[in-house]
Diaminopimelate epimerase (Streptomyces daliensis), 298 residues
Amino acid sequence: MQQPLPFLKGHGTENDFVIIPDPDGKLDLSARDVARLCDRRAGIGGDGLLRVVRAAAHPEARAMADEAEWFMDYRNSDGSVAEMCGNGVRVFARCLERFGLAEAGDLAIATRAGVRRAHLAKSGTGDAQDGDGGVTVSMGRAELPEDGVTVRVGERAWAARHVSMGNPHAVAFVEDLAHAGSLLEAPVVEPAAAYPDGTNVEFVVDRGPRHVALRVHERGSGETRSCGTGACAVMVAAARRDGADPVADGQPVTYTVDVPGGRLVITERADGEIEMTGPAVIVAEGTVDPEWLDGQEA
Ligand SMILES: N[C@@H](CCC[C@H](N)C(=O)O)C(=O)O
């Protein structure tokens, strides 16, 4: 890489991202490059990376280009690719506004899990957390395979619910979030065959009626301060546990989901579509030294 590489840094409920604009899809960011950029000590630092690419310029998104101009190429902090990132898609929408590539209002974003539709409140309106406008995203429908899954941390084990939000989740209701321990290592999820590509794991407690709190261990990133797809998976698992099924009942249901880094409000509509609202904040912008990125030192 010869030229300084522009980047932004942003977060949604403290799930933080390095954002790299690459409209024409010219950059070849290897897993190693991503891991170096996301390194909190030797790099910029982030739970993941969002590359902003025109859908028409990316082989995985070309088929969506008629519906969505921009593709969110999301990578976990270890460099692995994931299908979807819920906090990331809000921050991505905020970035498009920041770059002048989209205006506040409605916009479609292509992801590996399909097109997601976002509604951006105008920046600086002060009508959401962090002094910035909130973003609402239609996250698609949840899938709930009926396979029995167990999550284990040390000596403790919980029955968990398998939920797909385009990416995989195992949701375990626990008595105390501290029971999940340090989460420095990935929880053991069994049977492993239920998740051939690994999984994100959420631990959930009740806070009140239709109000829960979670901790999450993310595939490819470790414990993070928030996971948007995870919060949606938790919302749906909690609703089913509480006997609510909006498609069957013809009634939408809304849960408040607290995460270590803030709060998300999530509605499952009567047509099954899940809508998540939360903050999306850009905190910095700069350039990466190409010599550092290309260098050999770890
Ligand atoms: N933090 C994200 C999820 C990112 C992807 C996840 N780690 C995976 O591998 O599926 C979110 O906000 O949804």
Remarks:
- The chain has five helices and 18 strands.
